Amino acid sequence: MLLFAALVGVEQLLTPPQGTLDRAVSDLLVIFSLLVTILGGLYVWDLRATLVASRGCAKRIIDPIPDPEDILADAKRDPTRHQFFPWAITIILYAGLGLIATHFGIPLWAAILVPVVLLFLTRWLGEVLGRKD
Prior knowledge:
The protein has 133 residues and is mainly alpha-helical. It has one domain (23-130). It is 72% helix and 0% strand.
């Protein structure tokens, strides 16, 4: 979100007094916003895939260990827990992209449609890239 704010700040610096920003520069800033959002979303889902793999490995290691005191209960839980956090971060990123796109003059339908489509593609691609086969 700080990068989005920085892009809006750059826009303000590049806009001449009492003028408007050149359309090519505006489009370039939207493209930078799109790249930041996609890379950020992929990173979130790659981190989640890595975390799930690590939790699964730890669970397989400690499952055979007798634990009468239930000390290892947390490590034995489902490795895929906490689905909310990567979804929340990704939705926030893509909502920010939509706001930035409309700020820079992209039509509202595109500012909504592109982030929604990319939201689901990012999750799938991030998990595919983070998967270790």
